């Protein structure tokens, strides 16, 4: 018990140190460096990527040989499906790591690390700090879950199932230490399948908070109208006071519009990663959830199948979080338009002969924003349908349909 208390205190201290760092992606950097995704030096990125891809190709070759051997000598059985599902994860891991393009990642980090927009407000600083802490806790939770899953896998599945051993022509190679090392390496590489989603979720979470701050900033346009209400309601208008109003309103609107454009541009760049990733995420999860549920219905919960339960939960949770995050960002984007519609500009923004050009420019800018926010940000599954909570429901239905097909094939003896 004392060990757990000390470990908890150390984690709290570590969390506080990360929270004090000005870089919101400090823990993100450490983890991506461990997987060769991000380094400051390009040469180190190349070496780490090369090593990771070589490791992936070796593992894929190893499991491909197992598939060939099973098809040639044992036929269609549980062992073959275990190897096929693991091979599917390994291939999906390689594909996910290839689309996680480093230059785009660096540019997004640089943009999201800039906290100057509305940084003078204490509420915004607190909100950003809370998001940073939430992201750090999420990454730690994912790492702890993967370590626990790796411990269960290496302690139960690797020693007792040849499907997860280093074998050649059906015979294990090496002793116990070799098999443990092979199991740990397989877990390390396979964990990247989940880790890359964690990276994408962290970035989406920061985008969500920045979009939320922008919505609040648009809502503060009313403060400008309230500030000058007595001036407009008065019988006499001062030219200097009126100029001050138009300049302040113009600067406030310009700041918000520029931030809106920056967010849309960076989200558009992020879609170059999210599009291919969502395609792999959707179809990969669709197959794996159905297959692992098929395993559970046939063999129940045992010490060998408990690892599949954990992986099913991870796949469902990450698919839900991914679709939910995209939905929130699109809702916030649409809320910018609804916030503008609820403001007093359409009643208090009055035409002025002396400042006619400013009047027309501001109305034009507001109408352009209203039109832009009526269209959702096009996050698509690589061009095949929009990412939303409806897509998550489709994923669950598709997995259930595929599971039903597998059960029917089993009953017919295929």
Brief description of this entry?
Helix content is 80%, strand content 1%.
Characterization of the model:
- InterPro entries: 7tm6_olfct_rcpt.
- Its main location: membrane.
- It is a multi-pass membrane protein.
- The chain crosses the membrane at residues 50-72, 78-101, 138-160, 180-207, 280-299, 305-323.
- It is found in: Cell membrane.
- This protein is mostly helical and 414 residues long.
- It has one domain.
- Helix content is 80%, strand content 1%.
- It is built from 14 helices and two strands; from the N terminus they run ααααααββαααααααα.
- A two-stranded antiparallel sheet has the order 1-2.
- Strand 1 (167-168) and strand 2 form a beta hairpin.
- Helix 5 crosses helix 10.
- The longest helix is centred in the middle third of the chain and has 61 residues, at 239-299.
- The radius of gyration is 27 Å and the shape is elongated.
- The relative contact order is 0.09.
């Amino acid at each position: 018990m004392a060990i757990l208390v000390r470990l908890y205190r150390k984690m709290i201290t570590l969390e506080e140190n990360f929270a004090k760092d000005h870089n919101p992606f400090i823990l993100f950097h450490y983890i991506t460096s461990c997987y060769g995704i991000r380094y400051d030096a390009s040469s180190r990125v190349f070496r780490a990527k090369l090593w990771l891809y070589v490791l992936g190709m070796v593992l894929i070759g190893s499991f491909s040989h197992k598939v060939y051997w099973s098809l040639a000598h044992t036929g269609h059985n549980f062992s073959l499906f275990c190897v096929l599902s693991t091979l599917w994860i390994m291939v999906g891991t390689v594909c996910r790591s290839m689309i996680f393009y480093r230059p785009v990642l660096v540019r997004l980090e640089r943009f999201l690390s800039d906290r100057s927009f509305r940084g003078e407000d204490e509420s915004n600083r607190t909100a950003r700090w809370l998001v940073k802490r939430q992201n750090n806790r999420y990454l730690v939770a994912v790492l702890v879950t993967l370590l626990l899953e790796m411990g269960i896998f290496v302690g139960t599945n690797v020693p007792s199932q040849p499907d997860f051993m280093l074998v050649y022509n059906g015979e294990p190679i090496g002793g116990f230490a070799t098999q443990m090392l092979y199991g740990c390496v397989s877990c390390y590489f396979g964990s990247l399948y989940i880790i890359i989603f964690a990276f994408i979720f962290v970035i989406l979470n920061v985008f969500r908070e920045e979009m939320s701050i922008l919505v609040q900033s648009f809502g503060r346009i009313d403060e400008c109208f309230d500030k000058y209400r007595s001036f407009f309601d008065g019988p006499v208008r001062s030219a200097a006071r009126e100029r001050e109003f138009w300049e302040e309103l113009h600067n406030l609107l310009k700041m918000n519009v520029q931030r809106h454009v920056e967010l849309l541009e960076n989200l558009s760049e992020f879609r170059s990663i999210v599009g291919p990733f969502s395609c792999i995420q959707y179809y990969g999860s669709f197959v794996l959830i159905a297959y692992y549920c098929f395993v559970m219905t046939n063999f129940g919960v045992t010490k060998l199948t408990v690892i599949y339960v954990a992986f099913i939960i991870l796949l469902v949770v990450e698919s839900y979080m991914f679709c939910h995050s995209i939905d929130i960002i699109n809702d916030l984007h649409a809320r910018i338009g609804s916030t503008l519609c609820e403001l007093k500009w359409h009643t208090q923004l009055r035409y002025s002969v002396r400042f006619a050009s400013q009047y027309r420019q501001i109305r034009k800018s507001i109408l352009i924003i209203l039109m832009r926010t009526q269209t959702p940000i096009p996050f698509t599954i690589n061009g095949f349908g929009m990412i939303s909570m409806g897509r998550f429901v489709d994923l669950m239905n598709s997995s259930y349909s595929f599971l039903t097909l597998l059960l029917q094939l089993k009953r017919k003896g295929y």
